Amino acid sequence: MQTTHFPIIIIGGGPIGLACGIEAKKAGIPYLILEKGCLVNSLYNYPSNMTFFSTSERLEIGDVPFVSVNAKPTRAEALEYYRRVAVAYKLNIHLFEEVNTIERTANKFNIQTTKQNYTADHIIIASGFYDIPYLLNVKGENLPKVTHYYKDPHFYAFQKVIVVGANNSAVDAALETWRKGADVTMVIREKEVGERVKYWVRPDVVNRIEEGSIKAYYESSIMEIKEHEVFIQTPGGIKTIENDWVIAATGYQPNLSFLEKIGITLSNDDVRKPEYNEETHETNVPNIYLAGVICGGMNTSRLFIENSREHAVRILQSIQQKN
User: Fold this and answer.
1) DSSP element (H, E) containing 242
2) Residue 293 exposure: Cα atoms within 13 Å on the Cβ side
């Protein structure tokens, strides 16, 4: 494979990866963004009808206005906005190119991807957390009827659907599929619907459950999934539910094993927070930086686009000071 050198290589083409590319371009430092999927791949995998919690101005990067017709922008609007940002800045980004390995030599990094080899002086990892779902770890989870990525409600019209979970993704899936005529049952591990559910949506799902339109089993979990039924452990015993599809909206986790492989230290607790300087975002591996939600380890609800945009500025300031 051909080897190409860049002073900065950015891993992840989501909003924060794009923001890092913008700051590198402003600083006049050659860079390359590597994204294993499509542009802003995580946002693309969000449910088709998703509405953001944040307002559009809080999702802006690179001083490009994000104009939305709604108080809260939609997934479709965000995809178009970040595409326009990439075009406006002529960002150097390779899509559908996954990083396989990173190796440190005396004075640079060797990066091998699915398509090419690169060398770099600095690496910024902005890989997000939407790639690895939390598994149910039950028999039958590998059946074709089970998905961890809910996209569009029409597919489930007039079907018997079980939604596992009680946070935003699960609630959206339950409400949207029910409104398309699905017979919806929610399986919720906690005693109630999640408190972090969008404030304008939570009363809706609670009312649908209370009136019996959507069935819900609280303090319950899936025991086994079969072709036409699901066994649920509830406080009242084991229930057998007729079922066509299971939407396991159980959340996602960052690829922390990738960080470990390249020498980044993780905290020795359940959070597994990567070690990095809070001011510069440089990790314990010199010249490797972290940006975005990956900085929080397993605590993926602490960092969002709106409070991670500043990471790009801090990182490029640190890199410039070294040069």
Assistant:
1) strand 237-242
2) 22
DSSP summary character for residue 36: S
The torsion region of residue 140 among left (phi > 0), alpha (psi -120 to 50) and beta comes to left
Would you give the end-to-end CA distance of the chain in angstroms?
29
Q: What angle do the packed helices 168-179 and 202-210 form, to 10 degrees?
A: 60
What is the dihedral sign for C-alpha 295, 301, 305, 308? Answer: negative
Output the six-digit token pair for 184.
Answer: 């919806």
**Cα distance between residue 316 and residue 318, in whole Å:** 5
What's the angle, vertex CA 36, arms to CA 31 and CA 38, rounded to 5? Answer: 95
- Please report where in the chains the tokens 């996954």 appear, as a residue: 98
pLDDT in tens, 266-318: 999 988 999 999 999 999 999 999 999 999 888 877 767 787 889 999 999 99
CB-CB contact of 164 with 246 (8 Å) = yes
Both tokens assigned to 3: 């080897």
Distances in Å between the Cα of 243 and the Cα atoms of 105, 202, 229 are: 54, 25, 5
With a CB cutoff of 8 Å and minimum separation 6, the contacts of 204 are 175
The answer to whether residues 222 and 232 touch, using CB atoms and an 8 Å cutoff, is yes
Q: Per-residue pLDDT for 2 more than 80?
A: no
